[in-house]
Amino acid sequence: MPSERNARIQRALVVALVGNISSAIIKVLFGLLANSIAMLADAAHSMFDSVSSVIGIYGNKLSAKPPDIEHPYGHSKFEQLAALGITVMIFVACFNIMHEAVERAIANVIPSITLYSFASILVSLSISLLISIYERRVGRSTSSMILLADSSHTLTDVFASLVVIAGFLGTNMGFSYADPLAATLVCLILAYVGCSLFKGAASMLVDRGITLDTLMKVKATVNGLSEEVECHNVRGKAVGDKIYIDMHITVKGDLSVEQSHKITEVIEERLKQVIKGTEEVFIHVEPSRKPREKQMH
Questions:
Q1: Strand partners, 252
Q2: CA atoms within 13 A on the CB side of 266
Q3: Which band of pLDDT confidence, cut at 50, 70 and 90, is reported for residue 240?
Q4: pLDDT higher for 248 or 175?
Q5: Model pTM?
Q6: Per-residue CA distances from 86 to 49, 147, 185, 268 (Å)
Q7: Domain holding 84: CATH number?
Q8: What domain count does the chain have?
Q9: Starting at the edge strand that comes first in sequence, how are the strands of the sheet with 278-288 ordered?
Q10: Helix 145-172 vs helix 37-63: crossing angle, to nearest 10
Q11: Mean pLDDT in residue range 165-180
């Protein structure tokens, strides 16, 4: 059974998917009617937002599955592999749109911008904006990296639509290159999204370490529990939205195995309270042979 948190995230992603598909359909229909390459480029942007939502839904479903023998650290990295696939698709789309924009500029193709063109892009913009706000609100309340990332991607669709509107205005004012220029700017926004996706996915796939701030917080938390406990060789990695931490700790040499084990349980419980997303803490216990004051040097 999925948790309430996962259920809320899943609902938000489904809402985003329906909204992005609706926005893409509106842009494709009216883009074809207006013969606007800029609007069709924006439609491609919305389609990739839809694919991003699908990956989010799939990733959220996978993350709810418990680790197994083949995937002892869970299934979060499948989401990152899919994100790399989307990145390739985005760059191919950018190339094709840019090629079409250049050809239209050379052929001096002028789109037929009407009041319906403006109305349709404003409706699509409103849908994207509402989806982004909704996803960010649910993402913050559930601490969901998937939702927060998808919200940011959807927000770039709003900026792309604003560029298209500027292109429409330029076309109506007699600037013949306004539409292909707007399409080029939308492609740049798409390329930025692709680069961001690639950077985020690649850092997860190569086991990106925890931030320095998180590392310092781990050390401060453990060392602050007791004067007789000190940690060193602390490191951690992020797998999806989960954090895995391992460390060495020194304790009094005359403690029993049971007492040492209890200390590790207290440390793990405390770190899960302090560091959001902490999934597991692996602790190697070592006997302390020197007073702590001397160990610090």
A1: 288
A2: 14
A3: low
A4: 248
A5: 0.67
A6: 10, 17, 20, 37
A7: 1.20.1510.10
A8: 2
A9: 230-239, 242-252, 278-288
A10: 170
A11: 89
Q: Kindly report the CA angle at 198 between 194 and 200, in degrees rounded to 5?
A: 115
Among 205, 231, 266, which residue terminates a domain?
Answer: 205
Q: Is 194 left (phi over 0), alpha (psi -120 to 50) or beta?
A: alpha
Average pLDDT, the chain: 84
Both 107 and 251 in one domain: the answer is no
Domain region containing 224: 212-295
For the stretch 247-269, pLDDT in tens is 999 998 888 889 999 999 999 99
Cα gap 192→182, rounded to integer Å: 15
In 3-state terms, what secondary structure has residue 108? coil
For residues 142 and 261, membership in a common domain is answered with no
What's the whole-number mean pLDDT along residues 34-49? 87
Distance of CA 5 to the CA centre of its chain: 17
Residue for token pair 């590790």: 264
171 lies in the same domain as 281: no
The pLDDT-based confidence of 296 (bands split at 50, 70, 90) is very low
Q: How many other C-beta atoms lie within 10 A of the C-beta of residue 294?
A: 8
Residue 63's pLDDT band, with cuts at 50, 70 and 90, is low
Domain CATH number, residue 256: 3.30.70.1350
Strands (E), the chain: 230-239, 242-252, 278-288
Tokens 């001096």, located at residue: 108
